Each structure stands twice: as C-alpha cells, then as structure tokens.
Amino acid sequence: MTRMVDVATQRRRRTFFGQPWPLATLFGVELWERFSFYGMQGILLIYLYYAASDGGLGIAESTATSIVGAYGGTVYLSTILGAWLADRVLGSERVLFLSALLVMAGHIALALIPGVVGVGVGLVLVAVGSGGVKANATALVGTLYAPEDERRDAGFSLFYLGVNVGALVGPLLTGLAQKSWGFHAGFGLAAVGMAAGLTQYAFGRRALPPSAREVPNPLPRERRPLAVGIGIGIAVILGIAVASKKIPADRLSTIVVVASAVAAIGYFAVILTSGALDRVERRRVLAFIPLFLASAAFWSLYQQQFTVVTIYSDKRLDRELFGWEMPVSWVQSINPVFIILLAGVFTALWTRLGSRQPSTPAKFAAGTVIMGVAFLLFLPLAGGGPNSAPLLALIGILFVFTLAELLLSPVGLSLSTKLAPKAFHTQMVALFFLSVALGTAASGTLAGYYSEEHEAVYFGVLGAVAIALGVLLAALTPLIKRLMEGVR
C-alpha cells in the first residue's frame, strides 16, 4: 500500500521543465496545431495560383490572395465563436478537443478532395477549428496555475515556445513534401501532424484540472434552440451564397474586412454605452480605440507574409542554395527563427528597464513605424526581374518584421485585459482579436494591388502610410496615456 501511495505522489509531482505536468499536453497539441496550420499556409497560396500543369488550381493571383486573406481573417473571427462556446456551452477543454478534430478534418479535405471544393471545405474547417484552438488553449494554460503561483509567466513562455517551434518546422516539412510529391502530399503531412497532436492530447486531457471543463456562464436551456437555429441559419445562408456565386471569390477578403469592422464597431458601441461602466473604465475603453486601429494597420502589413511575400518569394527571390532550389514555403520559417531567438531578449530588456520601459502606446507606435520601414526596405530591390532578389536581403527584411511584431503583438492581448471593464473582460479580448481579423483580411485585399511591374509604388505607399500612422500615434500617446488612467 505504501509503495502505491509513493508512486501516486511521484506522478502528482511529475513536472514538465519545472511546470505542471499537464502543460506538456497543451504544449504538444498547440505545437502540432501550429505545425499543421503554418505548414498548410506555407503552400496554400501557390497551390491556388499555380497552373494545373504544376499541380495547382490556376486561380488568378488577386483572387488567390483574397481567399488567403479571408481565410486568415476568419481564423481570428472564429476565436470569438470558440470563446463563446467555451464560456456558455461546453467548457474550454471540450471545445479545444472538438476544434482540433475540425482542424484535422480540414487538412484531410485539402489532401483528398480535388479542386476548389476541397479548398472550400478544407479552409472553412481549418479556420473554425484553429479559431477554437487559439481561443481555448491559452485559457487552459491559465487553469494550471494558482493566482499566486510564480511559475505562471515562465509556463506561458514555454507554451509559446511550442507555438513557434511548430511554426518553424511546419513550412519546412510540408514544403519539402510539396516539392517532392505534390501539393496534396503537403496538405496530407499537415493532417498527419494534427493527428499526432490530437492523439497526444486525447491521452493527456484527463490530467487537466476540473476547472478546465467548467462552463463559466452556462447558456439557459430554453435559449439553446435559438442559438443553434441562428448558427444553422447563418451557415445555410453563407453556403447558398457561395454555391450560387453570389459572393465572388476575389471579394472574400473585403467581405471579412467589412464583417470584422462592423463587429468591432458594435462591440465598442455596446461597451461604451453600457451603464455598468464607471468614468475610469469608459476612458480606458476610449484609449483602446486608437490602439485598435494601429493594431489593424500593423497586421494588414505583417500578414502579407502569407500573400505578397509568398508571391515575391516565388517569383522575385533567388532561392538557389548550392545548386538546389529551396521550396517557397521555407521563407515562412524565417520569422519563427527570429521570434525564438529574440523573444527572450525583449523579455529581459523590458524586465531590466522596469518602470523606465516605454509605455504601451509608445511600443505600438514604434511597432507600426518599424513595420512601415520594413516595407520601404523592399524598394532597393524593386525592378530587378525574376529571381533577382538576394535571399539574405529578404532575411534582413523579415528580421525587421520580427522587431515590429515583438514591439506590438505580445503586449496587445495583455493591454486588452488591463483596459477591460469588469463587466466586459472577455469582450475586450475579443476586440483585440477583431483587430487581428480586420488586419489579416485587409492583407488579402491589399495584396490584390501588388504586381511586379508596380512593386515600388506598392511597397512605398504602404510603408509611408504605416510610418505616418505610427508617427500620429506617437503624437497622441500623451493623450492616450491620460485616458488609460494609470495603466501602462
């Protein structure tokens, strides 16, 4: 009996790099989900516009970028649905499991169903599933720690390491599979990766704490049929519209931009007009508006890694390495390398500076300006012709992309929770995701204006606009800080 007790105690004390053991389960499922997500996205655009003779669908580039932008925006829109289902119906643990199943099913559809039908079915499933995973995986990590547990920040850092490892390895392996055996092999490898993560999670999910399965604000039973009816109605309307070609594929990203903007305006209106807010809370919500706009502008340029930068890598970049041409998707692994190398540096820098570090509005302004500078760095390479841009130059540009990201992205969600009124905590987080959805969809719309012949104008105008927005935000920083009422 004593031996059995000792074994049980050892199991309870088992840790994952000093963190609660269930973090290994969440680390694994997120790593494999990001592997499949970025692996698929690394080859998606070229699959859409490559000619049929090259294994693609032969869709016009502007339409292809619109589809990719709409898909990316829908992922972030779906985080709202995933969070709502967790809070009101199923709990985060169940929603995460079901969402991972959807992701795997989507990759299988891309791998096995030929043509545009496979793309439509696959992208919808992956977008909704990825949104559910994104919304709930982070929340589940939080359930592993007591409020006073000092391991929390280190645990989240380890969790996000898994995110970037998956984002690094995914495009490398799916790109090799696509180059060697074709696009469907690449999509199939993404499905295998998600299956590995799902299998590992199925075995480890029992170790998650009971709070992971709680439904914080259960939807009353009498309202569930209405919610289900609304969901089915929306799905049917969208399905009919797409099937009847009432929604042109080259306008999909613009539709998601409009939907994201309308949802954001609605959220801001509901929060600001609520009687549950006091004066300080209302001023903090007002302070979030210019930061929301800056975030959307930033993501509209940053997410062009999956649209314009992919086209650029395919047509303008010299990808030859020692006589071997590297896959287009490998460019998508450059940013995760820099994130892994620099995230700790930025964390140490902010910790060392303490109260002397720049305020959040100042970081947002700097991130937006640097993102604009990154686009201007394409100008010296403009007009060089096919495969003329040096790989080292693009690596340098993506390094600047990463600097901008680390100034804005990590603090965005944190800021939304700090500025959130007590009565609208979740909605403020949803607003941040809406800024990402808006910017990501806009990246697809903007990419429709890119062409090799006019790339100097394209990069120059967008870079200059981003810099101007960043300078304007910097000028407004003193006002924003006053509205934030003590929040840095």
Topology:
Elements: H1 2-13, E1 15-16, E2 19-20, H2 22-49, H3 61-90, H4 92-112, H5 115-142, H6 152-181, H7 183-204, H8 224-243, H9 252-272, H10 279-302, H11 308-315, E3 320-321, E4 324-325, H12 334-353, H13 360-376, H14 391-419, H15 425-447, H16 455-483
Antiparallel strand pairs: 1-2, 3-4
What does this structure look like?
The chain has 16 helices and four strands. It is globular, with a radius of gyration of 22 Å. The model is unreliable at 1-11 (pLDDT under 50). Strand 3 (320-321) and strand 4 (324-325) form a beta hairpin. The protein has a two-stranded antiparallel sheet with strand order 1-2. It has a two-stranded antiparallel sheet with strand order 3-4. Helix content is 74%, strand content 2%. It starts with a helix and ends in a 5-residue tail after the last helix. The chain is mainly alpha-helical and 488 residues long.
Short structural summary:
The chain is mainly α and 488 residues long.
